[in-house]
Amino acid sequence: MTEQSATLKIGDKSVDLAVKSGTIGPDVIDIGALYKNTASFTYDPGFTSTASCESKITYIDGDEGVLLHRGYPIEQLAEHGDFLEVCYLLLYGELPTAAQKKDFDYRVTHHTMVHEQMSRFFTGFRRDAHPMAVMCGCVGALSAFYHDSTDITDPHQRMVASLRMIAKMPTIAAMAYKYHIGQPFVYPKNDLDYASNFLRMCFAVPCEEYVVNPVLARAMDRIFILHADHEQNASTSTVRLAGSSGANPFACIAAGIACLWGPAHGGANEAALNMLQEIGSVDRIPEYVARAKDKNDPFRLMGFGHRVYKNYDPRAKIMQKTTHEVLGELGIKDDPLLEVAMELERIALTDEYFIEKKLYPNIDFYSGITLKALGFPTTMFTVLFALARTVGWIAQWNEMIEDPQQRIGRPRQLYIGEPKRDYVPVSKR
Ligand code: SDX
């Protein structure tokens, strides 16, 4: 890693700071010694110009709309790979050989059941509880079950915890859905692939055999791939920060789920579909585009814009293609939501406001239409995002723990409150 230097002048002081270059992408200015040398902090709310770590897992070029996982373009992984192959790649850094893939699939498949007592956690929730609330609770509860895989200093235990997380998330997500709709839980079946198993756990009922539609299972698998990891996004940074204190890995993933739930992040897929339903028809789009541009109106086009992508989110293009595949397979013609979405995209991409602010559809814009067509209620959309993102969170958590520079994350602040003052007795207030 090549090193240059930058000089910072503050008053009569000047401080030399190392500039580090990575493999590709922007350089970083190492400010680790800044406070010691200048008694000043940097200030970057929202971390728009701040790199929190070194990483080899995912690279995003926001201007070019490029997304690489361990160097492989998302388009190629989505086209040629399957989700567990991408999981292996994210965790171990290389694409698996046939033998490695077979072993990995076997190990994940044979961790898909959850402890039978887990089912009791669900009964504490109201049936109409949001499935993301259930996921936060139940995934956090996993930390009470697996004490044999929580010594985070032991690479073997970390990998066991990682496999358990990847394997059990579909089972817990499907249980959250079944509980929500009042149907019995469906156990995983070891002769099904990851996506097929998940669809069956969600949509099978005891009264009849469930036959997996291979086209829909492939689409589900590809949707998982598109959501697997995305550099240091808010929920991944949450998992890294929680993990930096040495917290239980399952509890760290529960923290990631909580962060992902927000409508500015993973909750945008649910919010985007609700927005499309609220718009309802093409002739109402101008009204909503005007609201999205109005600084006095908090309304934003959900599924549009991104902190990093200032070009089309490459995942959104693949998602749009998958949407057409799923609707075609299901014989859904002229889906009114798709019609509104495509016209909204066309209008927004030609509108000066969106062009100037470089606002493009992101992964959440089309995903909701696809997931609704697959049979999921909108309240399950972010659960599916969390299911897929678990491998990214756990890969980044492992990388953080293995990083020799790893320390507990503890940001500072710019204090703008009251200066020191003495207590005033209530009789004198
Ligand atoms: C995900 O980080 C990741 O990688 C996330 C993710 C992942 O895989 O982990 O990609 C998944 O979270 C995708 C994003 C999903 N969220 C949404 O679709 C919600 C709608 N989008 C916005 O809330 C917003 O674009 C964010 C939150 C995504 C990004 O916010 P930023 O980077 O803080 O940008 P900003 O809010 O400062 O917006 C810049 C400008 C603002 O106008 P000005 O203050 O400069 O005048 O663009 C405007 C915003 O008002 N703007 C929008 C808009 N998004 C931004 N205006 C209308 N509609 C929008 N959607």
TrEMBL record:
Does this entry carry the keyword Acyltransferase? yes
Q: Which family does it belong to?
A: Belongs to the citrate synthase family.
Check the record and name the SUPFAM superfamilies matching this protein. Citrate synthase
User: Where's the active site on this chain?
Assistant: H306, D364
The protein's name in its UniProt record: Citrate synthase
Q: What GO biological process terms are annotated to this protein in UniProt?
A: tricarboxylic acid cycle
Matches recorded under Pfam families: Citrate_synt
Q: What is the reaction catalyzed?
A: oxaloacetate + acetyl-CoA + H2O = citrate + CoA + H(+)
Among InterPro entries, the record links this protein to: Citrate_synth-like_lrg_a-sub, Citrate_synth-like_sm_a-sub, Citrate_synthase, Citrate_synthase_AS, Citrate_synthase_bac-typ, Citrate_synthase_sf, Citrate_synthase_typ-I
Q: Matching Gene3D superfamilies, A to Z? A: 2.20.28.60, Citrate Synthase, domain 1, Cytochrome P450-Terp, domain 2
Q: Name the Gene Ontology molecular function terms of this record.
A: citrate synthase activity
Stored PROSITE patterns: CITRATE_SYNTHASE
Sorted alphabetically, the keyword list is:
Acyltransferase, Transferase, Tricarboxylic acid cycle
Q: Which gene encodes it?
A: gltA
GO terms for CC? cytoplasm
The answer to whether keyword Acyltransferase applies is yes
Query: Quick one: which pathway?
Result: Carbohydrate metabolism; tricarboxylic acid cycle; isocitrate from oxaloacetate: step 1/2
Q: Which organism is it from?
A: Rhizobium grahamii
